[in-house]
Structures are given as C-alpha cells and as structure tokens.
Specification:
Number of domains: 1
Helix content: 10-25%
Shape: globular
Number of strands: 4
Largest sheet: 4 strands, antiparallel
Length: 73
C-alpha cells in the first residue's frame, strides 16, 4: 500500500517526478515547486527519512502522529 502526502492545496497536475530515496518519490508542478510526496511502502520508510526529504524541499517535518495511520495494519 502506497501513501501520498499533499504539500499544496491546489497545485494542479504533476509536471514531473523525482525519486529522492528508495521508496520516496516527489511530484513537482509546472512551476517547479513540490506538490506532493509519494511514499511507496510506508512500512519501509522511517519518519527520519521522510523528514529529511521534507527538509530538502523546505517543508515542515511530519510528526509520528501524522504517519501512524500509514503504518496501521
């Protein structure tokens, strides 16, 4: 099961994607701003790894409470 973290409210369609780490793909809009993060396997991606990618993008870190539902069986 994959998960998606939206970074913008009305970003429109993705113009291109970049794989940032094994298991994390970032979607960018036509204006080259990140619009979302796809987490291919939430069980395999640590919170620290996700937050490192979010920091690289200039986004606020995710909390354990925010990602906990992604790891529910």
């Amino acid at each position: 099961m994959a998960a998606y973290l939206y970074l913008r409210d009305s970003a429109g369609p993705s113009a291109y994607t970049e794989e940032r780490t094994s298991g994390i793909v970032v979607d960018f809009g036509a204006d080259k701003r990140p619009i979302g993060v796809e987490i291919i396997d939430p069980e395999a991606v640590s919170l620290a790894e996700l937050n490192r990618v979010l920091a690289e993008l200039g986004e606020a870190p995710a909390t354990e409470a925010e990602v906990r539902p992604l790891r529910a069986a």
